[in-house]
Amino acid sequence: PELSEEPPAEMVKMTKSKTFQAYLPNCHRTYSCIHCRAHLANHDELISKAMQFLFILMQSFQGSQGRAYLFNSVVNVGCGPAEERVLLTGLHAVADIYCENCKTTLGWKYEHAFESSQKYKEGKFIIELAHMIKDNGWE
After folding, report:
1. Is residue 5 a part of any domain in this protein?
2. How far is it, in rounded angstroms, from Cα 134 to Cα 139?
3. Are 39 and 20 in contact (CB under 8 A)?
4. Percent of all residues in the chain with a pLDDT value above 70, rounded to a whole number
5. Which of 23, 49, 61, 119 is the S-S candidate for 68 at Cβ 3.0 to 4.6 Å?
6. What is the three-class DSSP state of 65?
7. For the chain, what is the mean pLDDT?
8. Where's the Yippee domain (predicted)?
9. CATH of the domain at 44
10. What's the pTM?
11. From edge to edge, which strands make up the β-sheet containing 39-42?
12. Does 106 map to a domain?
């Protein structure tokens, strides 16, 4: 039998591109992961300083690595298992959250607040400023 020589298959250059689960609209000010620039939250989802004043009487949110912001909702974030922790404002059940793209721990999600004055935090997210960068429309 005759052997036919076929040309080699075309080489395909594979590159690992960054794909996020969600992109936030460019028309809004956003916060992104400082490590990989994945979108994390819309500025509109930040709990207002007025609400912080009403509920925590001028106490700013504190993460394990410094100041933090409280958000109603976030994107591109994974959630670990909940555990009870004693925080500055009392006992809470919280779950660490991490960037889905680079796996950096960003903060935590409040699953349950044991004190009635802290119930407003349930279902909300803390992201430490050390892990965020401002994107889109900040001047």
Report:
1. no
2. 10
3. yes
4. 67
5. 61
6. coil
7. 79
8. 29-136
9. 2.170.150.20
10. 0.73
11. 39-42, 30-33, 132-135
12. yes
Q: How many folded domains does the chain comprise?
A: 1
| Distance from C-alpha of 29 to C-alpha of 7, rounded to nearest angstrom | 52
Mean pLDDT across 62-71: 73
Cβ atoms 61, 67 nearer than 8 A: yes
Q: Is residue 114 part of a domain?
A: yes
Where is pLDDT greater, at 4 or 107?
A: 107
Helix, strand, or coil (residue 14) = coil
CB 62 within 8 A of CB 48: no
Q: Report the alpha-carbon distance of residue 32 to residue 117 in Å, rounded.
A: 30
Question: 18 near 38, Cβ under 8 Å?
Answer: yes
- Residue 130, burial from CB neighbour count under 10 angstroms (0-12, 13-18, 19+): middle
Tally of CB atoms within 10 A around 29: 16
Tokens of 13: 């250059």
What length is written for the chain?
139
CA 131 from centroid of its chain's CA atoms: 9
* Residue 11 counted as domain residue: no
Range(s) of the domain holding residue 128: 30-135
Statement: residue 17 has pLDDT above 80: no
Please report, as a single letter, which amino acid is at residue 57. Answer: L
**Amino acid identity, position 5:** E
